[in-house]
């Protein structure tokens, strides 16, 4: 099962791996033709009704594979209004090769003929709202005809994610969908087949540019992109400052750092963009927890728990207490990680251990994490939280799904890059689900590093690289 956002991401990842969409369209069209061949007698009349997007493009390709039938292909609209280059190219190929094709410029002139099979390639995943004209008239004609109706990807008018369709949606007998089935096809009273269109497994497995493109709400009010609240510092000062700044660079609206009074000055002096809130102590202890939980809860903050906290007993106890009380979203890093296997929490956690921390938590103790994904996945399933295990190839898993992020440079072994990652993860967690946030963050962090020379990389340099690294088509 795959939803349309993820499908679009995987499609873009495939293109980045060298398998562009036009190639996938060739496979889709071929699969459509095979599905037609399965339901059509050798002398059947086939009418293909194509829309102006890539759903129509799939059908233009299919036309070339249906030479032996009595096939007509109708385009709803003028060829100049076809919305994508690849669909237009496939239409032009039909024109040049002399296929029987027609542009339907006015829905009143639509005539399906008397076909045995109608291919519905009007609209796929690009639909918004109810069918408009001329598609609405064409859908009515298909539903009224005696022909077998075969829909491409999804019956036109039906939302592939929800299965909802307006009254005028196409009532398909058969659906041929691509790569994986879609949530909205489940409840349909149609025969659904899934066609493999040659998307490499790597396009799903490895985080790629397509994963960056999940849209942030463009109308978001200040605050919608999230407040990140870093609970860190004590023995160390740089770590929480890096995490907070990274969160800002990755799109958080505000970043707060709660830190012991003793280290307030240095942390506040690192960056004027950070808001630092001191508590009266040398290090985090149980007394501070109620106040921190209250702040984070009141503001629906995404918390980063761990950077620079140190491993004092009272701090360990405070982290336990924090996770017991808090029920929001938390990125758990560094010394705070050791607490996670010991406690029950209602919070949503993304845990970001390096190799050593993973082993200390009870996960596999291995050098190359990407060779041990099954063990890490099983560990995450046991833990009940998303794990982002950091290494040359980062492994991200929620216990059921696993992805690998391969970006980065050898220079990233320098101190502080993990703190930057924790901040990026928190910012992304404000607008994405935990598994997506944990998958995209190391990809961005690694891409940020790739903009600098490997030798002598500083974690603070990564901060400057983050915004550019988050652009899909840089
Ligand atoms: N990896 C993949 O996802 C692949 C998908 N393929 C096929 O491509 C379509 C999706 O194509 P897209 O161009 O994004 O959208 P559509 O063809 O569905 O439609 C866009 C088109 O429709 C107009 N429109 C939108 N809503 C309405 C409406 N309610 N009424 C009328 N017209 C509407 C809009 O303006 C656009 O012009 C996918 O389903 C697959 O079939 C690839 O071929 C293979 C890879
Ligand atoms: K369709």
UniProtKB/TrEMBL annotation:
Signal sequence extent: none
Pfam families given in the database record: Carb_kinase, YjeF_N
CDD domains: YXKO-related
Tagged with keyword Membrane: no
Catalytic activity: (6R)-NADHX = (6S)-NADHX; (6S)-NADPHX + ADP = AMP + phosphate + NADPH + H(+); (6S)-NADHX + ADP = AMP + phosphate + NADH + H(+); (6R)-NADPHX = (6S)-NADPHX
Amino acids binding AMP: 418
Positions contributing to K(+) binding: 55, 120, 156
Enzyme Commission code: 4.2.1.136, 5.1.99.6
YjeF N-terminal domain residues: 7-205
Gene Ontology molecular functions: ADP-dependent NAD(P)H-hydrate dehydratase activity; ATP binding; metal ion binding; NAD(P)HX epimerase activity
Keyword Repressor: no
One of the protein's GO biological processes: nicotinamide nucleotide metabolic process
Cofactor(s), by name: K(+); Mg(2+)
This protein's UniProt keywords: ATP-binding, Isomerase, Lyase, Metal-binding, Multifunctional enzyme, NAD, NADP, Nucleotide-binding, Potassium
YjeF C-terminal domain mapped to chain residues: 205-473
Function: Catalyzes the epimerization of the S- and R-forms of NAD(P)HX, a damaged form of NAD(P)H that is a result of enzymatic or heat-dependent hydration. This is a prerequisite for the S-specific NAD(P)H-hydrate dehydratase to allow the repair of both epimers of NAD(P)HX. Bifunctional enzyme that catalyzes the epimerization of the S- and R-forms of NAD(P)HX and the dehydration of the S-form of NAD(P)HX at the expense of ADP, which is converted to AMP. This allows the repair of both epimers of NAD(P)HX, a damaged form of NAD(P)H that is a result of enzymatic or heat-dependent hydration.
Family: In the C-terminal section; belongs to the NnrD/CARKD family. Belongs to the NnrD/CARKD family.
Assembly, per entry: Homotetramer.
NCBIfam families: yjeF_cterm (TIGR00196), yjeF_nterm (TIGR00197)
Name of the protein this chain belongs to: Bifunctional NAD(P)H-hydrate repair enzyme
Organism encoding this protein: Halococcus dombrowskii
Lineage, opening ranks: Archaea, Methanobacteriati, Methanobacteriota, Stenosarchaea group, Halobacteria
Gene: nnrE
């Amino acid at each position: 099962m795959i939803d349309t956002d993820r499908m679009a991401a995987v499609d873009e990842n495939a293109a980045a791996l060298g398998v562009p969409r036009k190639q996938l369209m060739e496979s889709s069209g071929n699969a459509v033709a095979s599905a037609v061949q399965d339901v059509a007698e050798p002398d059947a009349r086939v009418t293909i009704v194509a829309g102006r997007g890539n759903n129509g493009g799939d059908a233009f390709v299919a036309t070339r594979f249906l030479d032996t039938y009595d096939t007509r292909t109708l385009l709803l609209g003028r060829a100049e209004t076809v919305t994508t280059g690849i669909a237009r190219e496939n239409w032009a190929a039909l024109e040049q090769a002399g296929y029987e094709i027609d542009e339907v410029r006015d829905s009143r002139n639509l005539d399906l003929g008397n076909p045995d099979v109608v291919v519905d390639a009007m609209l796929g995943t690009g639909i918004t709202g109810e069918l408009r004209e001329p598609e609405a008239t064409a859908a009515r004609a298909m539903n009224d005809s005696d022909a077998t109706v075969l829909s491409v990807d999804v019956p036109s008018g039906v939302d592939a994610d929800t299965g909802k369709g307006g009254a005028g949606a196409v009532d398909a007998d058969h659906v041929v969908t691509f790569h994986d089935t879609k949530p909205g096809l489940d409840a349909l009273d149609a025969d659904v087949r899934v066609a493999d269109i040659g998307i490499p497994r790597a396009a799903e497995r490895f985080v790629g540019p397509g994963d960056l493109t999940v849209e942030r709400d463009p109308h978001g009010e200040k605050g919608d992109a999230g407040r990140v609240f870093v609970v860190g510092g004590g023995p160390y000062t740089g770590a929480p400052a890096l995490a907070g700044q990274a969160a800002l660079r990755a799109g958080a609206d505000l970043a707060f750092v709660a830190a012991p009074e003793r280290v307030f000055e240095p942390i506040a002096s690192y960056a004027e963009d950070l808001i630092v809130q001191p508590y009266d102590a040398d290090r985090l202890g149980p007394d501070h927890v109620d106040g921190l939980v209250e702040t984070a809860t009141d503001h629906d903050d995404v918390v980063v728990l761990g950077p620079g906290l140190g491993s004092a007993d009272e701090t360990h106890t405070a982290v336990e207490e924090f996770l017991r009380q808090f029920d929001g979203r938390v990125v758990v890093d560094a010394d705070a990680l050791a607490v996670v296997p010991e406690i029950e929490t209602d919070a949503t956690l993304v845990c970001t251990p390096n190799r050593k921390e993973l082993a200390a938590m009870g996960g596999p103790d291995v050098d190359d994490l990407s060779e041990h994904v099954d063990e890490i996945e099983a560990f995450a399933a046991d833990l009940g939280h998303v794990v982002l295990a950091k290494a040359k190839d980062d492994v991200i898993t929620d216990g059921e799904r696993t992805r690998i992020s391969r970006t980065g440079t050898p220079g990233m072994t320098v101190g502080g890059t993990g703190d930057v990652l924790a901040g990026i993860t928190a910012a992304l967690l404000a607008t994405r689900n935990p598994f997506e946030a944990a998958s995209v963050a190391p990809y961005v962090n690694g891409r940020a590093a790739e903009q600098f020379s490997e030798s002598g990389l500083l974690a603070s340099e990564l901060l400057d690289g983050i915004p550019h690294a988050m652009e899909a088509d840089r």
